[in-house]
Amino acid sequence: MVTSSVRGGRCLRRFAFTAVFMLLWFVMPLSAPAAEDQSIATLRQMGKAFASIAEKASPAVVGVRATKTLRASSRQWLNREPSSPFEDELFRYFFGPRSSPRDREEQEPKQIAQGSGFIISSDGYILTNNHMVGEAETVTVQLVDGRKANAKIIGADPETDVAIVKIDESNLPCIELANSDALEVGEWVIAIGNPFGLSHTVTAGIVSAKGRSQIGIANYEDLIQTDAAINLGNSGGPLLNLDGKAVGMNTAIIGPGGNVGIGLAIPSNMARNIYMQLKETGKVIRGYLGVAIDDVQPNMADFFGLDEAKGVLISQVTEDSAAEKAGLKRGDVVVELDGQVVDSANTFRNRVAMHKPGTRVEIVILRDGKRRTITATLDARPDDTSAAGEQPQVRARLGMTVQTLTDELAQRLGYEGLAGVVVTEVTPGSEADNEGIERGALVREVDREPVKNVREFNDAIEKAQKRGRALLLIRVEDIDRYIVLSLSE
Question: Considering 88, 161, 222, 332, which one is annotated as catalytic?
């Protein structure tokens, strides 16, 4: 009986094994197609999600066309052939279209910039870029249904490259601004705009990085980087999340003039703050603490009693400033502002500037390794740190305005590998005009010190004011030359 039972058990196990094997034999070939069908279904569902977002958001995306009269004294040497049949609209906006000397004598040609924008309120307020409309004489907006409307410039902020225009329409579709602080690297995003005039082009990608700065687009940068295809003409269009809300406003690309997968967008929280101020007052007033700051470097940590190189180092405190009145000192390391961790000097600077003057802020610092909380009441930022693009003091003293040389302008003007500021406007009859400085010249040095951006240029001119003159190293095409300019009061 025992032997028979054992043999029966063995037979039962063999039968079970054979049954399982046969089942797997028939099922396994079916699993691959099933998985493939599931993958296709997932992709189809994702595509429908993108299509739904585009369908809902596109009616609120507009084309923007800005025009400005070009002075007859514009540079001849800038009238070179473009590297592609699609000319750089930003370049033409600042430096004008190609024309012959006779053309310039007979007429005043128009500069034209074409880009994008998006409606953020049903009564016609539209977000776009300052570099699109900031100095324009006329702005025309084209809606998705083909209607065109003249737009009024409500305000423009060169320091963030944000501008607001308004059309006299009502019951318009609009796009809601999301909380860009909640955006995470790796999230899907969708860009809509008019690249090269191709209306309502939709592209998708992911958030590649956050907090990009020192790009040279504006003085205040906290940019979102994305690999969603962005090209010339996308400027001012929305960058949307999967909820169809704008997490950013597309503003620039990094590369040789076309999309290479590095697009940059202004965060919606920054755009919202600027929008509210421009809508209320037509200008932006920023909070000012009165400190010079830098990131804490790894080799500095032990000198300031830090366990790790984190925070923002205060290297200077301005006399009688909000910082001095609050008790901040040179050598303090800022680690928090209003309960939020501060991880870079750029982040700290941007957050302070987002507050209105008179706002009380709580700043957590490390002093000699000990944690302290200090409350400061912000001042208004002094006029002498005025925006790139406005530069009233520089224009008055020199008769010209400048902007930071970007990769895109460098490629167009033949300044690749160089740094400095590009002359964007020269006042007729001014000191700069009399010395032969014209738009498109690159200022590389002031008083034999390199200048890499507008702020450094302004600071250098401020110092040179004490002597009453400044020595500029200027490049035109491939030739450098020195020019001395007298600085008027």
Answer: 161
